[in-house]
Amino acid sequence: MATIMAVGAHTGDAQLTMGMLLARHAMAGDRVVIVDLTAGERGAPRGRDIAEFREYNVECAGKFARKIGGVSIVLDSPDGELEKTKENVMRLADLMREYQVNAVLSHWKMSLHRDHVIAHQLTDDAIFYASLPTFERPLPPAKIRRFMYAENWEDEEGFVPYYWFDVTEAFPVWKEAVKELWLSEHSQSFPYLRYYEALSITRGARIGKDHATCFAADAGQRRQILDGLV
Q1: Cα–Cα distance, 36 to 119 (Å, whole number)
Q2: Secondary structure class of 34 (helix, strand, coil)
Q3: How far apart are alpha carbons 107 and 67 in whole angstroms?
Q4: Residue 147 buriedness (CB in 10 A; 0-12 / 13-18 / 19+)
Q5: What is the DSSP letter of 179?
Q6: Residue 225 above 70 pLDDT?
Q7: Residue 224 covered by a domain
Q8: pLDDT above 90 for 70
Q9: If 0-12 CB within 10 Å is exposed, 13-18 middle and 19+ buried, where does residue 180 land?
Q10: Is residue 159 in some structural domain?
Q11: Torsion over CA of 13, 14, 20 and 22, rounded to 10 degrees?
């Protein structure tokens, strides 16, 4: 059994962009952990109390995780004020060690949203400290073998699909679960559910599947060693 951790800047980011692959792994018996660095409370609809909306988002994140068979963790950085502090990096690194994570999904490095950029940087640093055997922490290092970056409409600059996953069987599970998030169907600024459903269909068509999801790799991961051409 592998352990997959998805790290999103706000409640909704990981669930929408990484959730299909997470559902696929959970269905295969792997452990899935979703960490929201903030609760996305400043996306509250007009007239709704921000503190109350935060609690609501935390509850919805938990419902999503349970529906796909995973675990939800929402940290307490304020929405819009996420910072790459040592405290935040080490808190995430310790979670990676606690759950003995094998693979990490997170944001691409370029984004329209500052919290997404910080989330990328914070996650990359956390992977380093979580997996470094000589860095002493209360818990043993995590054997993180792979990390990749999700396709997000706000993180499009420089994003090139590198990993492609067939998520056809997991798609109905994801679609039912993601409706637990207010953002997915009720946002007045962007049609989140419609967009990511359509994206999964177009990505699927490229690989001959009903639904697919794509992830990017950084330059250091874009390397394949071959014995020959045949």
Answers
A1: 10
A2: strand
A3: 23
A4: buried
A5: T
A6: no
A7: no
A8: yes
A9: middle
A10: yes
A11: -170
User: What's the whole-model pTM score?
Assistant: 0.95
- Distance linking the first and last C-alpha atoms of the chain: 33
Domain housing 39: 3-219
The verdict on residue 81 lying in a domain is yes
Question: Residue type at 175?
Answer: K
The 10 Å Cβ neighbour count of residue 137 is: 14
Taking the C-alpha atoms of 32, 34, 59 and 121 in order, what is their torsion angle to the nearest 10 degrees?
180
Question: What is the pLDDT averaged over residues 79-100?
Answer: 97
Say which CATH number the domain at 64 has: 3.40.50.10320
Q: What is the dihedral of CA 91, 97, 99, 103, to 10 degrees?
A: 100
Give the strand order in the sheet containing 212-216: 71-74, 31-36, 3-8, 103-106, 146-150, 212-216, 163-166
Helix (H, G, I), strand (E, B) or coil at 8: strand
Tokens describing residue 183: 């953002």
CA 215 – CA 152 distance, rounded (Å): 10
Question: CA torsion 203→206→208→213, rounded to 10°?
Answer: -20
Q: For residue 198, how far is the Cα from the chain centroid? A: 19
Number of domains in the chain: 1
